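Q: I'm writing up a methods section and want to include an example of the input and output format. Could you take the sequence below and give the corresponding predicted structure tokens, formatted cleanly so I can copy it straight into the document?
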Amino acid sequence: MKHNSLITLALASIVCVLGACSEQEENVKNNVPAENAAPSENTVPAAEAAAPEQAMDTVQDALESVSKIEAAPDVMPLDWHDRIEPAIEEAKANGKLLLLEFTGSDWCPPCRILRGRIFPAQEFVDFAKEKFVFVELDFPRNKAVTDETREYNERQEKAFFVQAFPTVYIVDPATGVPVGDVSGVSAKDTPATYVARFAEEYAAACDRITALALARGTQDPVKRAVLLHEIYQAVPATLQRFYRSQLEEEIIAADPSDPFNLVAAHNQRLALEKQVNDFKAFMEGVAKIYAAGRGDPQKVAAADKQVLEALEPILANPELEPRMRQLYLYHVKLPIICTQRNMPAILDTYREIVAIDPNSKEGRDAGMLLKFNEQAQQEKAAAGQQ
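A: Here is the clean output for your methods example:
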């Protein structure tokens, strides 16, 4: 868990920490499984793109029947950009929306279905050609890409909160913000079934753009707040992270009397967002500290001490959200005290992690390890009495 894998595991754990991504909402999403939900057959978790040495496990097994799906044709019937910015300008100039696809073209089975079966099909071309400008951001494993392209794609992956491949957004070029989500594809999908789903989401995206323009153009601030709140409530779970904070701010600014009781929730979300960003920065710092001492036991021991000292004031902060505290304990403190073989501290940390939330991934893992260690101690004690 420590050193190289530490930051990867930790950052993966904050996918659903923010209020924009509740566990209940995530369980019904087509593209990003909640940490307590079963993996979807329709996508592959984006984290797997960063770890090609690891088997695809459950997802790969579930999709074995389509893993040899036909490759995309050498020449796609639609023109695909590999950068968002020029595509946005083209879309604005031609009155179109953006179709933005994040894909793992040479390793992700659902992505290969889209590229090999759906996107080249005449049904899809006829539906989409006059409505969209197309962008593909690819994360291949077996073909070379330039450092510039890889870094650009990774920046966009973070900016658009991509957690699984394929992720396919309908984007409003006027704002650069997704207004529709058509991510995921099943092995049973045909061009006709995918286009039917796509057409429904396209209509909803157009309605969303129109409603936002109407609401924001309303002069009466109280009425504007009401219209924005109606949109706020109707935004689907997969898009909420793009809209929730912005719409809350607009609604509160339009009607400061707070008729929808948003102020407290908004402030709490902003505080949590700050703690999440602080956690990311802390983990990046931890990775750098250990990278500097790699291969030198004395430097690693010094790094352990430095990290634990930096962790103390964070854990002592009474305003630290419980879920964030659990992440710090599991991904920072626990790996260090495990290497130190401090069993009493290890067991106490397991217990604290479980007490915060026994149903999170960290809580479940700590609970299992706690039970195992307690049983081992009991067996050892029983053996000593015989």
